[in-house]
């Protein structure tokens, strides 16, 4: 069953449990909406329903191209035809040009529509997009990206981390391309110091320095 939770004033989390919890997000922006990740295909109609409450879908942002984050993309794009953005390092994987690390076969999740590289400058610093700041957080996948909603002070962490019992955990090992790099990317959490962390696989957490320090102390050899 697909469920919906209110993350903050302008952010809704659409989630479904299939062994693990899989999540996507809908963000209210002026007279429209932004979708962040599209979950798996059965989640797509509910994501669209929630997005429609706010108006036209203005863009789709992707944390990365793993199937539990882009499985609903083709269905949603067929309905809304919005620009889709992802880190440039992810494009060859999401378009089926090559398989992800530790995967045998490539898969094309775009089904013929275009995917754009997140805009940034020559230093690799991303531009803010409709009040959302992208942060490059590689490791779980080569181009994994987290998104910070400035107005609501929420960091949408995607698969940068997991959570359980009110604590931060590392990303799932079996699906992570480079765990050492993924753990280093968690420093973004401390850098941004958001009011809340919204996580794909797990519960959302109120951020505090103690929360992050506990995580670092537990996994300090990798952070």
TrEMBL record:
CDD domains in the cross-refs: yflN-like_MBL-fold
Domain Metallo-beta-lactamase, residue spans: 21-196
InterPro entries in the record: Metallo-B-lactamas, NDM-1-like, RibonucZ/Hydroxyglut_hydro
PANTHER family hit by this protein: METALLO-BETA-LACTAMASE DOMAIN-CONTAINING, METALLO-BETA-LACTAMASE DOMAIN-CONTAINING PROTEIN
Name used for this protein in its record: Glyoxylase, beta-lactamase superfamily II
Organism (species): Marinococcus luteus
